[in-house]
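Run log, item B.
One chain of 272 residues. Sequence copied directly from the ordering sheet:
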Amino acid sequence: MEKNLKVYKSDKFGVVDPASLSLFLYPKSAIVFLKDSNHSTIAIHSYQNFEESQLDKLLKFDILLKKNLPLKVYFHRSNFSLVPGILFQSGQEKSYLSFVKEQNEDDFFFSTALDSNNIQIVSSISASNSKVLKANFSEIIYHHGACSFLSYAFKERFNLIDQEILVNVFRGNLYAAAFSNQELTAFNIFELEKEEDFVKYVRILIEQLKFNKIHVRITVYGTVEGLVFSQSWGNKYFRNYQTKKPHANQNFASGLKNIDQLGIIETSWQFD
């Protein structure tokens, strides 16, 4: 794994005591945040060409993850379901996910409340990965990876126009959240290999939701190495297009540099 590792350290790394860990498992990468007691990030480890099946190896290799600290794990994966809070019943996560695809009986199921409990996002991980995590950490909180993007979108909802599509791009995939009159009407994850994939999926959403293609606003967050989603690029395909960096709820200790090159929303905004 060493050849796929990029290390970002602050001036305080090794000086202040670490207090917690956040692990973001993307479909093709893994990123570890180490935080101090003030919730400031003091170190980041980023791994490319990583698969979720390699989690056991990652826990054995990564020096940050060798610390038995409170851990939050965010799984970016297609196996999820959004359930209205008023209908959600704890313990029925497998049933909700069965509408997405057939679930393994021994998987570990979990959910997270969003938008003041109006929505629950339900997901799962394999029993083997759950066992590996529990063997290494005494305190773990599980979230689907979309929680950060969705929580940010709900925070921004009153700044949205009546037809809006927010897109979070990252290596290999994109999240698309469509809002009508500031209410979430569609959300999904799509594979992203080239710029044309972005155009295709956004246009499908516009057509399905019967949005006005001249009026609807497209807002893009994140970056992908080798792909271009700039303002000038988007203007070729959409009348009302913009790129933005999320407002920040994250703090970083002095000396942490070049973290924007990670291209993920979590360097600005994380669901906590």
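Observations after the first pass:
- DSSP finds six helices and 15 strands in the chain.
- The chain has a mean pLDDT of 96.
Flagged for discussion on Thursday.
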